[in-house]
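Appendix B, Record 12. Input sequence as logged:
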Amino acid sequence: MIPHHIAQCRRALLPSRLFSSSSVSRHENPLGLPKRGAPPQMPRRGGPIEKRAIPNVRKVLVVASGKGGVGKSTVAVNLAFSLSDLRDPTTNTRLRVGILDLDIFGPSVPTLMGLHDSGEPELSEVGALRPLVNHGLPTMSMGYLLPRNPESDSTHDTPVVWRGLMVMKAVQQLLFDVDWSMGQKGAELDVLVVDMPPGTGDVPLTLGQLVKVDGALIVSTPQDVALADVRKGIAMLRKISVPVTGLLLNNSHYFCPTCAPSPPASSTTGHSPAHSTPQYLFGPPDRFRATATRLGIPVLAELPLVPGVSSAGDAGVPYGLVERGQREREDGLGGVRWVEGMAGVARGVWEAIGGEK
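Logged structural output:
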């Protein structure tokens, strides 16, 4: 254990960050990081810029949707946790997985990972942001970098009021100025899960033009209003040559854990027929499946609506970490199917992005 006074001295010797402190450099350096090497250039009319790998990251997996409110951030966090349960067949060690939250205006990862009151990340000796870690997963988010509101002493109600240029520069810094090696020489992530904001604007465009992305998981809900925006999001990703790995239908159906049971419980599931009959609260999945077929994209999972997933996220805990007995007691068959479905998605995307050697 490092003595407190020594730790304070070490922190004092590290580079510091000045969030938007200079009006002159604000547009070029919105996160206030110490100046490092030349940043990647944005594409100009003269031709495209060569895409780069993110430092210390083997594979980049994007979780996206054209529509907000479909559970994309919840899926991203739980997918990262499920991926970390997989093993690299060449080393038989668990995958090293990180989460990058690129939602500049509405970051959710700090809350979902239980890090919303964690304070600012430290900087490495070369001025890169060091990820904050919880549940064994390193994470980075705009939510960690916001100044505290002096009235509430919190960043929860601090808005980001930026125009497009500053947003694009901030995205560049989050992509290329984070030390995913965690200060360990030669260490790297096997997979970086990138939680994207909704829409087809500056953030996904910047990522797709600058970074070598290995795959994208598209999240939707059954409603037509969500599917319409999903189709637009897929079209944009294909336009910037981001491979779409698969589709995930969230809140597909609901298993009622308290409905009156019918005759004996099923011997295979342990749940009565009344408990195991899916209720399609937001409409049947037919249109979603037809969209996937028309676009030629595999459906990796149709996850049920599970109240425990939401309450666990509010508590900052991936649903897979909730004690199994509690999941089955409170969420019934839905909780079982949700965890199994997410594990299947993890295996599917890992294989699809070439993770298995």
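The two ends are 39 Å apart (CA to CA).
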